[in-house]
Target: BSP-domain-containing protein
Amino acid sequence: MGEFQPPSSPLPTPVFTPPQSSRHVPPPSETPAPPPTEATTPSPTPSSPTQSISSTTFPLPKLRLEIRDLNHKGAPIFLTAVPASNALQKSIQDVLKLLYVSPTTKTSTVPPTRSVTLILRSMPGVAYTTGTELDAEHKEIHFSLDYIQNSITAPRREHEIMGVLTHEMVHCYQYDAFGTCPGGLIEGVADWVRLHAGLSPPHWKKEASGKWDAGYQHTGYFLEYLEQRFGRGLVRRLNEKLRIEKYQEKRFWTELCGRPVELLWADYGKSFKKEKGRNEEEGKEGEGRNEDEECVMVEKEDTTIPTKKGFHAEPKSTSTNPRVT
Model:
């Protein structure tokens, strides 16, 4: 990037702690529904985002599918759009490969999630993840059949379903600083993973206004900026710090990036303005080129031979064969 990178503290030696309690972010974390009518231009995603996903294979937990109402019109839409077992397996592998190095690396401590149950049912909203009544190592993803039926256009069904599943699967495998991590950061990590899995929806856009921890794609794009600035693996290191210590904002970000998060957010805002300015300049240059091409066309038309009804440009035939009637 050609930008000075402040030294960050070395990654602490992994401390193997007993399994922590279930992540609680009341109310249960929900994937927000995209605006139904808003027409926005999506921000450019990282070039070839799926290239950041390694070929390492992690062991899978027990996977279950529960459909509460097979007569619901959303049920066959889901089953037709994605093969359920493959969809769950792929979303887990993408999450683990982005948040952890490998199942054998000592610096990768994957949470001991023993099972994930996908529950399709009628409910408001989009989706949320929670622990089961059994214990925190058994997770449930609740996905709205109403949303699947009414809010996803046919061409985007597979992409959107996989995006929601991937976001929610992050909540089955991320750390939360023993329940002290801000909810906005938890949701931002989930959407950062969705972004890198190549599953960002068209309504997402990059913004640098408001607070850094507003969550979801707002925070996800901020994390992507940090990943590009401080090097690949920044979000992995962030997740590891959330595993071994409670969240104290100033200390957390200074140790991770060498600067308080307020300054990092300000840096992101400046970078965003520069990027936006470059995009606008490129757009103006493109418009200028189009105008030049139109002027050339006018000059060609001015040289045509007038007819009785005025100037008329006769089209030239590109065929080398005589016309057959």
Summary: The chain has nine helices and seven strands.
